[in-house]
Protein 1
Amino acid sequence: MTRTAPGAPRVTVRVPAKVNVQLAVGGRRPDGFHDLANVFLAVGLHDEVTAAPADTLTLTCTGPDADQVPLDDTNLAARAARALATHHGLDAHVHLHIAKDIPVAGGMAGGSADAAAALLACATLWGTDTSHAELLSLCAELGSDVPFSLVGGAALGRGRGELLEPLPVGGTFHWVFAVADGGLSTPAVYKECDRLRDATGRGATTADIPDPEPSPALLDALRTGDATALAASMSNDLQPAAVSLRPSLSATLAAGTEAGALAALVSGSGPTTAFLVADAEDAERVAAALRASGTCRTARTTVGPETGATVISNG
Ligand code: ATP
């Protein structure tokens, strides 16, 4: 491993996880992808990515799920560093350390978060003067959830999720996240969604499924900060597929609802489940009930919206 000299400059970026408060999935396109109406909310589970000078590109990771994070060129943070270096005609000579607290393969965009954080950390370390628009476009090339990790807050994603429109949020929402054992592969969940749609006999292509649209009631609830209205309008078209692949999620969703959550849904492609609650006190109560239920590995309380990728230390 390349060691960084003590006292060498280093840049640390903090980046939030996301929950999809609405994930409307259109029919399968001829290229195999799906158009989405994706309402992202950044929430307070964070990874931190530190970039430090090195002789080559190296990667380390710590945290409860660190053993599930690939440390080769497939890691999205490494790919982000290479993309930025290529964009500016530089060598990607950097050591990236990921302090990982976002569940891996949990439907909370952890890899995308690390990619956005690595881009910002490397741009700052290398002094590349990359504009926000350039960073956003590099993010979009890396993956459809990466631009949102850079901007944070709340946003509507269209297309494959990468065309972002920031959304106003009129308050703080309280959440509990139930972390499951093991992950779910996002492509496998989309495939199962298509399979379930085909099984209805009505078809799964763009000709069969209406174009995905954001819910006006949901956008209103975000704008006014009304948790009860948000609870009534949240939806995730991938939920039946995630539950079909991981039937035990039904018990987790029921445990949170019985404990008094305003609403329960699978986060993105799962298997993390998200519970919207009225306040911090309810969050602690629902989290304790979920932990006691034996239906999840652990439960975490937090709030959203959170700011996107942010430099927290430089020097
Ligand atoms: P999304 O919500 O965007 O669909 P996810 O939260 O379900 O994503 P990730 O945590 O991003 O899933 O991980 C998906 C897979 O990506 C992992 O199983 C892992 O093999 C790979 N991966 C690549 N880079 C990273 C990274 N920096 N952190 C975590 N996983 C990574």
Protein 2
Amino acid sequence: MRRKLAAGNWKMNGDKVALAELDTLANTPEATEIDILVCPPATLIDAAVTRLGTAPVAVGAQDCHAETTGAYTGDLSAAMLADVGATAVILGHSERRALHHETSEAIREKARAAQAQGLMAIICLGESEFQREATNTLDIIGAQLSLSVPDGSTGLNLVVAYEPVWAIGTGRVPHPDQIGEVHDFIRARLERRFGAGVGRSVRLLYGGSVKPANAADIFAVSNVDGALVGGASLTAGDFRPIISALAQA
Ligand code: PGA
């Protein structure tokens, strides 16, 4: 059985005051039933880990460099993130693929580095609206998946997030059948590449405009093991009902 995962991606939002949201999450009763992860901006990771203490809420990062140390001004390595207590890192988010020109090959190297440091790599995949209209969504997802995911991945060090680019921050959500089609496809591909045992153990998240109002419908879809939540993860008031919906799914 895959343990469900509710992951929040704060993106470039949040300051020290916003860490108070974590106090409410720390007391979420469902935190013992499902995994909860918050990925604040890197400036807040250390403080978030300290603030959460022994609470059952994990802290992750939003990107890392493929190298461990070196002359890479402005970058952070997976080792540095692990050093301050992060246990996961989001990689290949569509905003980084688009705005930082990250290729799937580069994302795979980052994921390899993250896994080598004991971090769980949350690798994001997703088609643009143009690509969906051209009906080659599964081709796009298949190519991103095989190139971005490193060999040796397991259910412990890999999570795959399907995030259609056109659904991120737009309030538009695919039909459950569309989500199910992609998630079933990703599951089948992972089983083929890594074998049924590993392939079935990797958690698949849906991301893109997940809100309290639509969460239950999304979590009812086959092979949806949780969500990667952007805007609605910024306040515990929005994130908690999504966590509850996941625990009940
Ligand atoms: P959103 O973002 O929930 O604000 O649409 C999701 C994401 O980009 O991970």
